[in-house]
Design goal:
- By secondary structure, this protein is mostly helical.
- The chain has three domains: 1-32; 34-94, Photosystem II 12 kDa extrinsic protein (DNA polymerase, domain 1), CATH 1.10.150; 135-205, Orthogonal Bundle (DNA polymerase, domain 1), CATH 1.10.150.
- The chain has eight helices and four strands.
- The strands form two sheets. A two-stranded parallel sheet has the order 1-2. A two-stranded parallel ribbon has the order 3-4.
- The radius of gyration is 70 Å and the shape is rod-shaped.
- The protein starts with a helix and ends with a strand.
Length: 207
Amino acid sequence: MQKRGKSVLSWITVLTMAMAMALVLSGTMVFAQKLLDLNTASEKELESLKGVGPATAKKIVAGRPYKSVDELSKAGLTAKQVETIKPLVTVGAAAPAPAVAKPAATAAPAKPAATVVPAKPAKEVKPAKEAKSPEKAAKAAAKPAPGQKVNINTATKEELDALPGIGPVKAQAIIDGRPYQTPEDIMKVKGIKEGEFKKIKDIIVVK
């Protein structure tokens, strides 16, 4: 009986020692394993954790950043899952978000130069019609009315000047050649020929 009791005790001792060694080795392996940072680990690295599959790994990545391991519950993990992976993970500083380069300020388009509208040329001022000279006015006034005859013995210089083909020089010559007996006598005046007489014979008299 004593031998059997000692044998059982020996087995218990061996078993206890084996379990203790197993626990020590297990703890050593856990500590020896690199702890994964929940804020920086990739999905593949998270999938290597016990009880973490692709879907859970995506949840963990989507719930970043974490301030503690317990915040995994916010990402949809159960309390059991959190306790299972708690010894295998740690929480470091969140990875800085990539800086978004600000677009360069677009230079404002230069304003087009003001279009210079050429000034309109001043309208040419037409010279005012020359006023009729007193001589021409007098000649126009002295022109005999239709049917009226001019007495070459009594007519004024202006009236004689108004006759067709008779100018101021010939009008004065007619006055100097007075008196005339017949209208044809006017051809005695220098410069008045038959051609000029024909123009005025019907409108002159010697009464």
